[in-house]
Amino acid sequence: MGFSKNDLVAVFGGEFDSSSQKTNSVSVCVVKAVGQDDLLVEYDTGYVKSCCVVPKVVCLKLHLNPNTLLSSEIMQPKIGDLVVSYTKTSSYSEIQTKTGILDKISYKLGKPDTCDIMCGTTKETVAWENLLVLESK
Length: 137
Known about the structure:
The protein is mainly beta. Helix content is 4%, strand content 58%. The chain has one helix at 66-71; strands spanning 8-16, 21-34, 38-44, 49-55, 59-62, 82-87, 96-108, 111-119, 122-127, 131-135. The longest helix is centred in the middle third of the chain and has 6 residues, at 66-71. It is elongated, with a radius of gyration of 21 Å.
């Protein structure tokens, strides 16, 4: 695969120990220079931008047609849909999920705010913004 300056790339990382090998991390970088077998990439550390040399074989070029971004929309849940609500209370906590059938939508300031989902025999009130449609009715 050919790389060019200013390409957006995913650079894979991972973990290796005596019982497993995992490629379970990725850093999104911008190509600054292309070498024979390596790339000079810039990445955001959260505080500053840094550069490093990485092997091409651990990089995947990323591309999306801008028109796709313009036309993409999140699927809007409807009453009767099977949904999952996800909540993360802090950056260190696990994601909490609740799965159920969307039963009621409450609006505030002209847009959906909260909703009730039926989780078995229990009705749970959850934030609208945290819903993902698993299956539409």
